[in-house]
Amino acid sequence: MSEATAMMQPVSGTPEQFKQSFRDEAREILTDLESSLLALNENPGDANLVSRIFRGLHTIKGSGSMFGFERMAAFTHDLETAYDRVRNGVLIASPELINLTLSAVDQITAMLEEEVGGVPCDQSACAGILDKVRRLAGLQESRAESGARAAYNEHNERNERNEHRPEDPAVSGKSVQNWLIRFAPGPDLLRCGANPLLLLRELGSLGGLSIRASMEAIPPLAELDPERCYVAWDMVLATSADRDTIRDVFIFVEDACELSIEPDNAGKAGDAAADRTERTQAERIASGLAEKRTPSTGRRTYDKPDSSTSLRIPAIKLDHFVNLVGELVTVQARLSELAGRSGDAEVTAVSEEIERLASALRESSMDIRMMPIRGTFEKFRRLVHDLARELNKDVELSIEGAETELDKTVIEQLGDPLMHLIRNSMDHGIEPAADRLAQGKPATASIRLSARHSGASVLISVRDDGGGIDAEAVRRRAIEKHLVAADAQLSEAEIFALIFQAGFSTAKQVTDVSGRGVGMDVVRQRVDSLRGSIEVTSKPGLGTTVMMRLPLTMAIIDGLVVDVGDSCFVLPMGSTLECIELTRDDVARANGKHLVNVRGEIVPYVRLREHFNVRSQPPEIEQIMLVETAEGRFGIVVDHVLGNCQTVIKSLGRFYHQVQIVSGATILGNGAVALILDPERLIQEAVGNEGRRLNGREAAMTGGRTRDGTCLPPHRAT
Amino acid sequence: MSIELNQTGDLSLILLEGVVDIGCAEELKIALLQAMEAGREIRISTEQASGFDVCAYQLLWAAQRDAKRLGVRFEFKGELPAGIEALLASSGLAGFLTTE
Hints:
The complex is a heterodimer.
Chain A: H1 3-8, H2 16-42, H3 47-66, H4 70-87, H5 95-113, H6 123-137, H7 150-160, H8 169-172, E1 177-185, H9 196-204, E2 208-214, E3 232-239, H10 243-249, E4 257-263, H11 271-274, H12 279-292, H13 315-342, H14 345-369, E5 370-372, H15 374-391, E6 395-400, E7 405-407, H16 408-429, H17 433-438, E8 445-454, E9 457-464, H18 471-480, H19 492-497, H20 520-529, E10 533-539, E11 543-551, E12 556-564, E13 567-572, E14 576-582, H21 584-589, E15 595-598, E16 601-607, H22 608-611, E17 622-629, E18 632-638, E19 640-648, E20 662-667, E21 673-677, H23 679-694, E22 715-716
Chain B: E1 2-8, E2 11-20, H1 25-38, E3 41-52, H2 54-70, E4 73-77, H3 82-90
Parallel strand pairs in B: 2-3, 3-4
Antiparallel strand pairs in B: 1-2
Helix pairs in contact in B: 1-2
């Protein structure tokens, strides 16, 4: 190992745990880089975006090298330099540079993921990107290609010689400010593989750094934990860089250290640069910082309001935690059952207290799983950008409701359906610019991604202002493909629902983007698997909206326990509106039809007893659970409502995968297993069965439908 | 990396070689404690060292301070390699470890 290499090396054998942490952080930086690049493409003169991009590249390079991603660091070196030039007004952020940088981000992502099973980066593509970037930026071939660490070493060597200050005010013309910085590594920082000395060196690259190491906390040798960091640093940094840029130096260790970055209002800018070695200066800073610090009740006080309250946790740990909460909820239900049977007031009181706590814990754990959908939405900016170039269409993506939160499992499953919808929209929905202009539309088309809460669901829509769907063409195609009978009477919604059938496509031409009829059925399947629903509305010439309704959470639900004969079922509370009685007289008044009058509204219902072929006698008075479905209100008739429960959804496994009316199973307090019903699917299936039984008779007679998957809304009584 | 402790009379010589970091910090601590107990003089040879991290630095600093308190002579033999010097300087740690 050469000396230089050894010096750059983080502490021995970078632990995979810390590398993974770097990957997690780097993914976020790369996502942000991509968004910033796309935004810069729209607003070429935005200095904040340029700074953001530069900082992202700078962090990827510096930290990449620190954590063993030397090739990534070297590759990023010239890109960083190019954006330094853009920042300093020497170079223009042309679309060509932005597109090259986007391609570079793809390669950096590949470098990041290749060790963990990702697609390896394309070396020749990397070389090509660097060549073009250098040509655009007027750079000589850097030492990046002469060795993995060369560029980073060069960067650091220049820092030591006080050359190449990215924020050199002489170049940037920005004003220099002094910052008081305290950096106290946490006890485990060294065990994670981080090397604070390299961070300090990186910090020094931002400007003039005056530094004082604090050794007071180092205990006697015999008591010293050799793997713990006891040294802290007080510094003054004279730089034109802002607080975020300074903080970025510590981005990968900030959760494991005490970090304070304060502007030095007392000190003159540039003092530190001129006085790098003067101890009195550092001591003044140290004392200034000491005044600002919380009294030493412990080391880990932390001044970062935006992230001090957040903690990064591996998803697998969170899933495990939620599973445990689920088990607790199940056991608590059993305890409640036993307490109720025991009749012991004291036991009942404890049981109720545990129930209250379990409920609060359940809600908290669910809340932890909730994530804003922003990250998923933002990824599509790149897709739209690339497809627009590929298809030679001018398309603007707008995003609404990016802060809408939903379960992380749902978010993880949403990427593919949204991608299919956007690709279809861009390929088939949006017209070429000339056609749009001829129709009096703006040349730039619009795709709007939006999310909003609606009760216990989230509505996610993809809306375009393209040509819309030709309902008649869809119908003809469906008849050609024998998906519907030639004389079938279909509503517009039913016709649009056909586009989700496997193999269905009206595209005149199969392209690389879409048109093979593969995709929309996958969208439907994915939404189904999430217990959601999807609908399409479209107006010829005006555009199409695809709306997905998805549940907020997938793991635990509030449910109502009902029974039919000896069987218990759970209905999700979120879709249940109310419970009313159904007497024999009510049935007689409807002439045996499955309709009931609910305060003037005629509501169709499904009898679970008949649907599941339960042979026992129903009680004199049955219960109708009114549920809200995508198509309106329906009733589900059961024998009794036994009570409410927090229900942990357990999968029924692959064997029952096709039984769509059951979304899972749960264990009740008495140990019995109850199936969790999906009211939406149950209604669809029941109505479909009824439709087939009536063999084409008018749907209105059943209060239902003509075909699977669609339901007529309930009738208003007159 | 290697850490070698040679004891001759009152003199304990600790030879540091390669990168001295968290991977051998426990070993270095044991060597320093043994040296502290054994003799009246400790000498650390850093000529063959190519890298230090904070762990190594803290141990040497603590040993130097303890030695002073106990009246044990503590010295560094030879110059610190330039790379180590530079890194320590950029971290505000230069000058804490005194060489002979």
